Fold:
Amino acid sequence: EVQLVESGGGLVQPGGSLRLSCAGSGFIFSSYEMNWVRQAPGKGLEWVSYISSSGSTIYYADSVKGRFTISRDNAKNSLYVQMNSLRAEDTAVYYCARVLTRGIAAWGYWGQGTLVTVSS
Amino acid sequence: DIQMTQSPSSLSASVGDRVTITCQASQDISNYLNWYQQKPGKAPGLLIYDASNLETGVPSRFSGSGSGTNFTFTISSLQPEDIATYYCQQYDNLPYTFGQGTKLEIK
Structure:
């Protein structure tokens, strides 16, 4: 059974940093592209970042470019996002999501989400 | 960025009704369109990918159609467990973008 488990969320002050992790199991982690998607309280879904299976290709939403860094450790079956210079508008539940299959950016598997709150 | 316009933003229907949600892209996205269902407090779940392909395990009352800029998501016979918010999402161009969501309620 495919499982994705996020961790690392919490309360952080504006300008602060946080690192989220996503542990994958039940599949060959190194074979799949991964993404971070977020959802502000009471709002819709927003794609944040993409990383290819090898980690060689990375994309970001403009709203986080230059502040967030996505990475993965295939040996540890883990996905990360380092979030710096956090703003109030980054407050959201952050989900990691796995593509259904290579080449189709349909996210067939999601973690349960981890809440990041940016507030003083 | 490609804008995805979903309508309606909310919908109230009775059990057994046929429900239709539309999603319009601001430019041609071929069939690179997915539909998700999100129940309160839960992560989204994939229902339809590539505009019309039903994800494994999803009930056949759900369907999708369309290509180019106009897409339709249909529930053929609404069930109580279908109460959720539904999102379309395009992946033709980065950044991947979602519609604003359609909140479906039982009348």
User: Anything to note?
Assistant: The first strand of chain B starts at residue 4 and ends at 7. The mean pLDDT of chain B is 97. The interface with chain A takes residues 32, 34, 36, 38, 43-46, 49-50, 55, 87, 89, 91, 94-101 of chain B (CB under 8 Å). DSSP finds no helices and eleven strands in chain B.
